[in-house]
Design brief:
With 160 residues, this protein is mainly α. Helix content is 32%, strand content 6%. The longest helix has 14 residues, at 50-63.
C-alpha cells in the first residue's frame, strides 16, 4: 500500500518486482518509478486510458530503465491492443497471455491472433489489427454480475 516502501523493498532484494496492475494514472506510475519501486511495470491498457496513456507510462519507465509487462487478463481485443503497444516501445519485456488465439476466445475475432515460435505476431490490419465477429459476440450476451470485492474502511481493495 506504500509506494515508498515498495522502493525500499525493491532495493533490499535481488528479485525483480513487477507491479502496477492496480495503478491507473501516469502520475501513479511516475511516483512508483521515482521511488524505485519495481524493475517491471504492469500497466493495463484498458485501465490506464488506452494506448496513448500506456505509451506515455512506458516512456516514463524507459527513463528509469524499467521494463514493461502489460497486464492483460481481459480478452483478445485487449491482447491485440497490448501487442500494438509492445511493438512500439523499446522497453517491452514480456506479454501476459491467456490463450486468446485458441477457442473459445479466438472465435470472437474474424481472424484470431497468430502465435508463432512463442511469439504473438503483430497484426498488419487497420487499427489494432483485429475485427470482431459480431455474430459470435451476439451469441455471448453480457451477464450482469455483482463483484463482491472486499474493501477496507478507506475504500482501498482488501485482497485477503
Amino acid at each position: 500500500d506504500s509506494i515508498q516502501r515498495m522502493g525500499d523493498l525493491q532495493r533490499s532484494i535481488p528479485v525483480p518486482i513487477a507491479t502496477g496492475e492496480r495503478l491507473h494514472t501516469i502520475w501513479e506510475f511516475n511516483e512508483l518509478l521515482a521511488a524505485g519501486g519495481c524493475r517491471f511495470i504492469r500497466p493495463d491498457v484498458c485501465m490506464v486510458g488506452g494506448l496513448t496513456h500506456a505509451k506515455k507510462i512506458a516512456a516514463i519507465a524507459e527513463a528509469y530503465h524499467v521494463g514493461v509487462i502489460p497486464h492483460n487478463p481481459l480478452s483478445p481485443v485487449s491482447t491485440a491492443a497490448c501487442v500494438q503497444l509492445d511493438a512500439c516501445i523499446p522497453n517491452f519485456a514480456l506479454q501476459e497471455y491467456t490463450g486468446e488465439d485458441l477457442p473459445p476466445k479466438s472465435t470472437i475475432l474474424k481472424q484470431p491472433l497468430v502465435r508463432e515460435g512463442g511469439y504473438l505476431l503483430v497484426p498488419n490490419r487497420p487499427g489494432i489489427g483485429v475485427e470482431l465477429d459480431m455474430d459470435v459476440v451476439r451469441a455471448y450476451p453480457p451477464v450482469a454480475k455483482v463483484i463482491a470485492t472486499p474493501l477496507h474502511e478507506d475504500g482501498s481493495v482488501a485482497d485477503w
